[in-house]
Amino acid sequence: MPLRILLLAAGAIAALLVAQDAPNFGVVQGMVAVGLIALLVGLLALLNRR
Predict the structure, then answer these.
(1) What value, to the nearest 5°, has the Cα angle with vertex 22 and ends 17 and 23?
(2) For 4, which of 22, 28, 38, 40 is 20 to 30 Å away at the CA?
(3) Is 24 helix (H, G, I), strand (E, B) or coil?
(4) For the segment 3-24, what is each residue's pLDDT rounded down to a tens digit?
(5) Whole-number CA gyration radius for the chain
(6) Are residues 26 and 37 in contact, defined by beta-carbon separation less than 8 angstroms?
(7) Which residues have CB under 8 Å from 1's CB, separation 6+?
(8) What is Dmax (Cα atoms) for the chain?
(9) Do residues 2 and 36 lie in contact, with contact meaning Cβ atoms separated by under 8 Å?
């Protein structure tokens, strides 16, 4: 379920950058999703550092 929410957010962010009917929309959505996952992992690492 959390992954689905993350991918939904990635789709919304990608839609701001590229038209949804563009041929490379899936690639942009995947790149945004990887960026969001990296951001989430980084935040979790910083929170656990205390």
Answers:
(1) 125
(2) 22
(3) coil
(4) 899 889 999 999 999 999 999 9
(5) 13
(6) no
(7) none
(8) 45
(9) no
Tokens of 28: 């942009």
Q: How far is the C-alpha of 18 from the C-alpha of 32, rounded, in Å?
A: 11
What whole-number distance in Å separates Cα of residue 37 and Cα of residue 25? 18
CB-CB neighbours of 10 under 10 Å: 20
25: left (phi over 0), alpha (psi -120 to 50) or beta: alpha
As given in the structure block, the two tokens for residue 16 are 């701001």
Question: How much is the average pLDDT of 43-49?
Answer: 92
